[in-house]
Amino acid sequence: MVAYTLLVFVIRRIVFALAATMALLAVVDWAVRTRRISPFSGIARFCRRVVDPMLVPVERTVVRAGGRPASAPWWMLVAVVVGGLIFIYLLEFLGGLLAQLSYGLSQPATLPVILISWAFKLVELALLVRVISSWLPISPYSRWIRWSFVLTDWFIQPLRRVIPTIGMIDITPLVAYLLLAYILEPAVLRGVQSAMGA
Question: From CA 194, how far away is CA 198, in angstroms rounded?
Fold first, then answer.
C-alpha cells in the first residue's frame, strides 16, 4: 500500500503540473486569438504550430454549442482540471478498495461488511457518473454511461416523484447520494455488524 500511496502522490503532482501548464498555454493562446499578443510574434507562431492543433476538437465542440472559438483554451483548461480531479478521485477510490480488501483478507469475518460497503460505493460512484455525464453532451444510452443509469434508476425514480425540481435543476441525484452515503449505508453496515456480532 505504501507503493500505491506514493504512486498517487506522484500522479497528483503530474496532474497539477499538467493543469498549471495548460493554464499558461490557455492564457497565451487566448491572448493570441484575441490579438492581445501580435499574431506575427514568435509566441503566436508557436501557438499556431503546437497549441492550436491540440485545441481543434475542443474548438469544434465549443462552436457547435454556440460558443466563440477564442474560448476554446479555457474549455480545454476546464477539461484538464476536471478530468485530473476525477482521475485522482478514482485512484484514491481504488486505493481505499485495495486497503479494505487487504484488511478483509487478513480478517475474513469482516468480508461481508466490506462487500456490502463496496456495493454502496459502486452505486454512489454511479450517481456521480450520472451527474457529471448530465453536464456533458453524452447520451444516457452511451455504453460508457448506461451502466450508471441502470444502477441508480431504482433509487432515483421513486425520489423524483417526491422531490420537486428547483427551476431547471434536478436535485434528486444529490439527495439520493446523501441518503445512500450518510443514512442507508451506515445503517445497513451497523445492522450487519451487529448481526455478525450476535
Answer: 6
Integer-rounded Cα radius of gyration of the chain: 22
Instruction: Dihedral sign for Cα 39, 40, 41, 42, please.
Output: positive
Q: CA 161 to CA 143: how far, in whole Å?
A: 27
Mean pLDDT for 67-77 is: 83
pTM over 0.70: no
Q: Based on the number of CB atoms within 10 Å of its own CB, is 62 exposed (0-12), middle (13-18) or buried (19 or more)?
A: buried
Tens of pLDDT, residue by residue over 131-173, are 888 877 788 888 888 999 999 999 999 998 888 888 777 888 8
The residue among 189, 198, 182 whose CA lies nearest residue 112 is 189
Would you say 188 and 120 are in contact if contact means Cβ atoms under 8 Å apart?
A: yes
Task: Over range 39-63, report the average pLDDT.
Answer: 85
Residue 189 reports pLDDT greater than 80: yes
Phi, psi of 141 (to 5 degrees): -95, 0
- Count Cα atoms within 13 angstroms, Cβ side, for 168: 2
Q: Going by C-beta distance under 8 Å and a sequence separation of 6 or more, which residues neighbour residue 12?
A: 88
pLDDT at 14 over 90: yes
Q: Say whether 169 sits in a helix, a strand or coil.
A: strand
Q: Which residue has the cell 491572448?
A: 31
Please give the Cα distance from 171 to 13 (Å, whole number): 34
The set of cell numbers assigned to 154 is 431504482
Burial class (CB in 10 A: 0-12, 13-18, 19+), 40: exposed
